[in-house]
Amino acid sequence: MKATKESLSPTRVKLTVEVPFDDLKPSLDATYKKLSRQIRVSGFRPGKVPPRILDQRLGRSTILDEALQEALPQFYSEAVEAEDVDVLSRPEVDVTEFAEGSPIVFTAEVDVRPQLALPEADSVKITVDKIEVTDEQIDTQLGSMRERFAVLTPVERPVATGDYVSLDLSATVDGEPVEDATATGMSYEVGSGNLIEGIDEALIGASEGDSRTFDTELLAGDRQGQTAQVTAVVRGVKEKELPALDDDFATTASEFDTLDELKADLRQRLEQTRKYEQVNQAREKLLEQLIESVDVPVPDSVLESEIEAREHRLGHDLERYGVDRETYLKTLEQEPEEFDAQVRESATKAIKSQFILDTVVRAESVGIDQGELMEQIVMLAQRSGVAPEQYAQQLAGGNGAGLTALMSDIMRNKALLHLLRQATVVDDDDNAVTLELPERPDPADLEAFEDDGHDHDHDHDHEGHDHEGHDH
């Protein structure tokens, strides 16, 4: 086999491959064997039809074409390996010369991973927020704890914001009752905004036994988008009493004996949280800085594939929650064009991040051992609530695409940790910051390249030498 590589752009190459005709023999023999089983010829048992009879029935050229179709994926893979082509998409193959006894010549155009020139890691400087825990933040934490130990006490007065009311709800549209829009004895915190639009305004000032009717738009169900008349009957009103903030509260709400000890623990926990946030901020800023400073071309095929995968995941999530796309965009207060542009921008950044970190993986020979991989699988399985063996089997399905994607993400995160260790990190006051970096990537960090919070069920390598749909 002879193969030459021509660069068409930073992300696309053209392979010209010449294969001796004799290299087609294994595929030709296999094709004859397969056709011998499929074609019924009088006087011959299935699988025993000789090649010359098949040539007469089907035509030699037809059989040669089928044999070539079977052989092309292998020929293409050998050329890719010989020329060290880092493919990202399916190839567009064109057979230019194919005659019996003569060398087979074909071309293959394919998108490839770009070669990037990255700055020296120790030349990168990142500014992160300084760690600062204020008394106000401690008070907020204590307030949340007091809320958990609050007691609801019945009151005989009009409803105010923050009260808990017991409600009977019903709804009609044009006088017709709305199914599944009835509730009895529902408990609701007035002012929380967790029920339906308009109810808080309707309830404030009402007393026990009062009935309030208001209009609201239905956001789900068969009558989605229609205006309903909702009636709320107040069956009871309770106010929330918070416990006193003292040593007794500290003993009740924690393992500490005094309020001062509880406050010290809260401060320490908040500081640790800020350190974790500092690492995440450094990760994001480092990638943003590299994306802005490095020319990272993105092939259209890769970008469109990523966008399609994100749209598929979003559609799956919306279907699971019974929400259509239009309603979802309304909750985001975005127009379709604005949302689509945001998805495209996010997908582009994610792909550029992958390309940058893949470059570091190769340059630094970042790898992953079996122990590391199993450790990640076990932790991810625990988060998914399945047995590690079952999770590993799921990853191995589909030609191991899930496992390959997981390994790639682990190595990318290791590469990112390497960059963070080399970079200069300072806070807002330009003081040096020592990040508390983990020795190994946390499973939560594996989602860094699958942002937007969607489910991440696709191959982030954009690889896999798929030879279906070649154009000959």
From TrEMBL:
Q: Where is the composition biased (Basic and acidic residues)?
A: 451-472
| Residue segments, region Disordered | 435-472
Establish whether keyword rRNA processing is in the entry.
no
Q: Which InterPro entries match?
A: PPIase_dom_sf (IPR046357), PPIase_FKBP_dom (IPR001179), Trig_fac (IPR005215), Trigger_fac_C (IPR008880), Trigger_fac_C_sf (IPR037041), Trigger_fac_ribosome-bd_bac (IPR008881), Trigger_fac_ribosome-bd_sf (IPR036611), Trigger_fact/SurA_dom_sf (IPR027304)
**Residues of the PPIase FKBP-type domain:** 162-214
Write down the PROSITE patterns for this protein, in alphabetical order: FKBP_PPIASE
**Stretches assigned to coiled coil:** 259-289
Q: Which GO terms describe its cellular component?
A: cytoplasm
Q: Name where it's found.
A: Cytoplasm
Q: What is its main location?
A: cytoplasm
Q: In the Enzyme Commission scheme, what number(s) does this protein have?
A: 5.2.1.8
Q: Which GO terms describe its biological process?
A: 'de novo' cotranslational protein folding; cell division; protein transport; protein unfolding
Q: Does the keyword Transferase apply?
A: no
- UniProt keyword terms in alphabetical order: Cell cycle, Cell division, Chaperone, Coiled coil, Cytoplasm, Isomerase, Rotamase
Which family does the record assign?
A: Belongs to the FKBP-type PPIase family. Tig subfamily.
| Role of this protein | Involved in protein export. Acts as a chaperone by maintaining the newly synthesized protein in an open conformation. Functions as a peptidyl-prolyl cis-trans isomerase.
- Supply the domain comment: Consists of 3 domains; the N-terminus binds the ribosome, the middle domain has PPIase activity, while the C-terminus has intrinsic chaperone activity on its own.
Q: What is this protein called?
A: Trigger factor
List the source organism. Pseudofrankia inefficax (strain DSM 45817 / CECT 9037 / DDB 130130 / EuI1c) (Frankia inefficax)
Q: Which gene is this protein's source? A: tig
